[in-house]
Every structure is written in C-alpha cells, then in structure tokens.
Amino acid sequence: MGAWEEYYLPVIGMVSLEFIYATMVIMNRVALVKGLSPRIFVFYRQACATLFTSPIAYLSRKETSNAGMDFRLFLLIFVTSFVGVALFQNLYNEGLYLASSSVTSAMFNLVPAVTFLMAAVLGLEQVNVKRSSNVAKMLGTTLCVGGAIAMTLLRGQKLLNTQVLSVTHNWLVGCLLLLASVFCWSSWLILQVPITKRYPDCLSLSAWTCFFSTIQTGIMALVVEPDPKAWVLSSALEVAACLFSGIFGSGAQYFIQCWCISLKGPLFTAAFSPLSTVITTFFASMFFHEEVYIGTLLGAITVIIGLYVFLWGQAEEMKEKKELEPPIVTTLDNTSCATNWEQTLLIHNSTP
After folding, report:
1. What percent of the chain has pLDDT over 90?
2. Residues forming a β-bridge with 273
3. Taking the C-alpha atoms of 273, 120, 142 and 192 in order, what is their torsion angle to the nearest 10 degrees?
4. Which sequence ranges are marked TM in the entry (predicted)?
5. Which candidate, 171, 39, 40, 21, places its Cα nearest to that of 105?
6. In sequence order, what are the residues at sequence separation of 6 or more whose Cβ sits closer than 8 angstroms to the Cβ of residue 125?
C-alpha cells in the first residue's frame, strides 16, 4: 500500500488531471464555436468555481486564516484576480475560439519558460551562463518561444482533416491572444509569491480569487454583451461546459495537483503537462475533425522539447542549491521564499 500510495496514485492522479484539462479544452471550444459568448462563458465558469470552492474553504477554514489579511493584501488579491483570472480567462477563451484546441493546449507549455524570462527581467531569477542548469533553462526558453512562433506563423501543409467546426476569424489573432494569456498567467504566478507568504491559507485564497474574478468577469461580460438573450444557455453542451470547467477546471484540478505536489514535488507535476497536448490533439482531430498542420505539429513538438530541457535545468539548479545549503539554516524566511518561488515557477497549470 505504501508503494501504491507513493508512486502509482500520484501518476494516476496526474494522468487523470491531464485528461480533465484536455476534455475541458475540447468541450469549451465546441461550445464557443456553437455560439456561446467567450465573455459570458468565463463568468459562468467562475461563478460555478465560486459556488464549489467557497463552502469547502469555509468548512475547512483555519482559525488564523484571516489574521494576516489587511487592506493592502486584500487589494493585491483583487488585482491578481483580475490579471490572473478575469483578463487571462477572457484572452485564453477568445484565443481558443479563434485558433484551435491543440494549439491552445500546446501554448500553455510556454508558461514555465515565460515565467522564468519575466522573473529574470524583474531580477527575481539570477542567470549565470557558467552553470549548465542556467544554460539549459535559457535553451529551453528559446526552444519554447521558437516553437510558439512556429505554431503561430508557420501553419504549413494540412496533415489531418478538413475542419467541420470552421471559424472565419484570423488564426494569427487567436495565437497572439493565447500568447497574451500566457503572459497574464505568468504574471499571476510571480505575484503569488508575496501573497502566499503573507496569506498561506490556499483554500481561502482560492475562494477569494474565484469570488473577485466572478464580479470582474461579470462586469466585463455586461459591458461587451448587454443583450439579455446572449446570457441564456441554450443547449446542454453549454451548461455542461460551464459546470465542468468551473467544478473540475477550477476546483477538483486544484486539489489533485496540490495533493500530488505534496507527495512528489512540483517538478513531477510539471513534467506531465505535455500529455494534455497529445490527448487534446488526438481527440480533437479524431472526434471533431479539427485541422492539424505540419507547422503546428512541429511547433508543438519543439515547445514540449523546450519544456523538458527547461525542467531538466530547473531540477539541476535545485540539486545544486541543496548541495550548497549549510547544515544549519539560519534564515528561515529566505529559504521559504526561495522554495515558494521554485514551486510557483513550476506549478503552471493548476487552473487554466
């Protein structure tokens, strides 16, 4: 039972998680192509997530959960909810609608590399070209960015299918929106470091984030979609997409990922993310006749290779830090902050 719990269950959990994400991406795109507004969909998704997470956070609340909450932290959570959920989800779903399920899934393998790049620019990550770990991270970042450019600009010859669910909007615009959503998500990850350090109750933080983002996405949707008829979910597919994304995408997915991280660490969970790209591409082309292009496929493979090169560099860097650690740690706060940053850099697909 010990080996089963320590090894097999985390693997089953992460594979299930990637199937959940792939199912969510495909289901959402079909609903959007069928006529559901991306802005209204995001609002309903966050409303479902709030209804799901709030009771759990309340029942499992800690006595000191609100002890560190002040106005500045409250405002920071509100701002990060806008950047990392409201703005991110709107860009992401609009890009999903304009591009394709497979491209959307592949683009999110960029998150660790983009987060590393932003952290290096902000001075949160030190880059030393003399270390093999840093060279690997820079090479992985370059491969990821190059693969994303290939997916965006080099569609090439069609490999599979003539798309049944055709959309007349521009493919390039969809890819650029997805890239913008990646930068939003990476910014949110970086901002989680100071927030979680001051407010470590993750369940409560998740509930607050869902609540704020529900208000924000509701206002955004009302401005763009004032017609009451647009807010009516006219099919079972639209209702299922909202419920599945809210409960599983923003709820169960969070718990499974946190549980796997507690057992195996963040690097283990990050290594499974390309699996969702493979699953999404396979099911989207087989069951929904989504187009697959040579440029898209080669770009996705390049991004996945870049991700694993980056993860190898991250693992080597963590190994180097452990070797350099003194036997007695005197600065607990700095150690905690470094650990939080490494985990934040790797935990990139908890609520996409």
Report:
1. 19
2. none
3. 20
4. 7-28, 40-59, 71-92, 104-124, 136-156, 171-191, 203-224, 230-255, 267-287, 293-312
5. 21
6. 116, 119, 341
